[in-house]
Write a structure and sequence with these properties.
By secondary structure, the protein is of the alpha+beta class. The protein contains 13 helices and 7 strands. It has a 7-stranded mixed sheet with strand order 2-1-6-5-4-3-7. The longest helix is centred in the N-terminal third of the chain and has 24 residues. The radius of gyration is 21 Å and the shape is elongated.
């Protein structure tokens, strides 16, 4: 069989699945179609001779596309280009029976809740809870460790289910861990740092942060990250960053770096350093001084 025809047939066999996954992540039929079409274009441009599971490869590609779209939407502080969610689920002018069945299978209430989730939370939850992808496969898509990805999906699941997670208690426990990290960092306490870091902790600086100081690249593993942070964080202050614990660094009253911590099962699973000025302007944070 001609390779192009085979790829086209394989894509068509997976199109419904890809569109359904994209719809759950984006909440917009038109954007879901755009994501599926972009996946087809990438498939057409890619050498897939080494791909053993084309369906899985396409799902990963669509997830990455959706994550980029969600992040761009959040950056622009815009809703989907499609009309309000309830107006876009069923379109009588476009095969009403099929559209109604599709909407019922997703559930309007679920889509509304999913739109309140952060992009990475949404992708992690949809791929794991709805499409049974393991966390090890989802983690590279959203740029997190497996432990951090599991935490994101768990937090999203609690919000979808409408469950309370005792935020005051949880925040207090996380603050203790964050403060222990800062204290160990300032004191050059390598063992203290390793004690609060997950074994597979990942440190990710953005492009601007990567040019600051001596920690200038992504790294993984408790020993490596602890060594990098030993003796640092002298000017850092504990803060709430995007609803999670982290810390900020200000110089002459000007915000220079924000560090977001992902804490899972009592240890720091990921450290994200943000120093890009445009990103800092959009970031929600509050310093905890009490």
């Amino acid at each position: 069989m001609d390779e192009k025809k085979w790829l086209a047939d394989e894509f068509e066999a997976n199109r419904a699945h890809l569109r359904a996954a994209a719809y759950r992540m984006l909440g917009s039929r038109s954007e879901a179609d755009d994501a599926a079409q972009e996946a087809w274009l990438r498939l057409h441009r890619t050498d897939t001779t080494g791909v053993g599971n084309l369906g899985g490869w396409l799902t990963t590609v669509v997830a990455r596309i959706c994550l980029d779209m969600l992040r761009a939407r959040k950056t622009r502080r815009e809703e989907p280009l499609e009309a309000p969610l309830h107006a876009g689920i069923a379109d009588p002018a476009n095969d009403p029976e099929r559209e109604a069945a599709f909407a019922d299978s997703v559930g309007m209430a679920l889509l509304v809740v999913l739109q309140t989730l952060a992009p990475a939370e949404r992708v992690a939850f949809v791929l794991h809870d709805m499409f049974d992808l393991p966390f090890d496969e989802i983690a590279p898509i959203i740029g997190r460790s497996s432990a951090a990805t599991r935490q994101l999906a768990s937090r999203a699941r609690r919000r979808v289910q409408g469950l309370d997670e005792a935020p005051d208690v949880d925040l207090g426990r996380k603050r203790t861990i964050a403060e222990a990290f800062l204290t160990a960092s300032r004191n050059g306490d390598l063992e203290g740092l390793i004690a609060v870091l997950a074994p597979d902790v990942v440190f990710r600086p953005d492009a601007t942060a990567a040019r600051f100081g001596t920690i200038g690249e992504m790294m993984r593993g408790a020993a490596q990250v602890a060594e990098a942070f030993k003796g640092r964080a002298q000017a850092a202050e504990i803060a709430i960053v995007g609803g999670e614990l982290g810390f900020v660094v200000q110089i002459a009253g000007q915000l220079r770096v924000v560090v977001a911590l992902t804490i899972d099962d009592g240890r720091i699973a990921a450290i994200d350093a943000i120093a890009d000025p445009d990103h800092l302007e959009r970031l929600d944070y509050s310093i905890l001084r009490d």
